[in-house]
Fold this sequence. Notes:
Layout: E1 2-7, H1 18-27, E2 30-35, H2 47-54, E3 63-68, H3 80-89, E4 95-104, H4 112-128, E5 133-138, H5 145-157, E6 165-167, H6 174-181, E7 185-189, H7 199-207, E8 213-215, H8 237-248, H9 252-266, H10 273-280
Parallel strand pairs: 1-2, 2-3, 3-4, 4-5, 5-6, 6-7, 7-8
Amino acid sequence: xxxxxxxxxxxxxxxxxxxxxxxxxxxxxxxxxxxxxxxxxxxxxxxxxxxxxxxxxxxxxxxxxxxxxxxxxxxxxxxxxxxxxxxxxxxxxxxxxxxxxxxxxxxxxxxxxxxxxxxxxxxxxxxxxxxxxxxxxxxxxxxxxxxxxxxxxxxxxxxxxxxxxxxxxxxxxxxxxxxxxxxxxxxxxxxxxxxxxxxxxxxxxxxxxxxxxxxxxxxxxxxxxxxxxxxxxxxxxxxxxxxxxxxxxxxxxxxxxxxxxxxxxxxxxxxxxxxxxxxxxxxxxxxxxx
Length: 290
Ligand SMILES: [Zn+2]
Ligand SMILES: [Zn+2]
């Protein structure tokens, strides 16, 4: 069994075959997907939640839990109405995290001060709802600038909540992961761990404690080798588990099980409630264990 901890299921790149794509994921052993609710911008932040409800009772698909948030690329759209929308979505039972939020100094699609403000505002909303956060952090080339700033903001505005979160698509240094783990974060690896030049990512992955690791696809982006450049999908999370197992001298089954258990434990979810939910047809497939 596998969990894809980060996928953009509402992407228009699945418009033609979304159901078939989700069935393929289930056939590949994917039991749960965290569908990231950033939409194509704040206006469609709810799209992931809509999908999780549409497919709630489908036994032939993974169960879908979701997040909601404003991506740093769209931080310039994080006005009061966008933040209010996030605040409203955060109460929904399917929403298990706020994200992806953070800083992207590689593309700088929004000015850095604007990204920082949107990041902090969304941390406040997450804290108010006691939800963990999904972090997107990408520094400029040959720099750690976004990590330095993100960790400083996390220390100032998030550490004390103890809620932690996930560093998604991790490509930082071990020291960044370490500082975040001290704030109760998990570290999620994506298909880029398979790329030839990704030895620094593999080196970090080899060193991390097993109980802090997750796997994801970031689909439709970042298809792992040998499909690099093509559309990605959650079934491919298998490749990430295989690569992680190789890097850590472990085996595929262990890696799949460990990352799946880490996900359920961190988000306080239980896979066993799913069958009951399907029977009644009324309930969310996953329920808080405590
Ligand atoms: Zn991201
Ligand atoms: Zn993403």
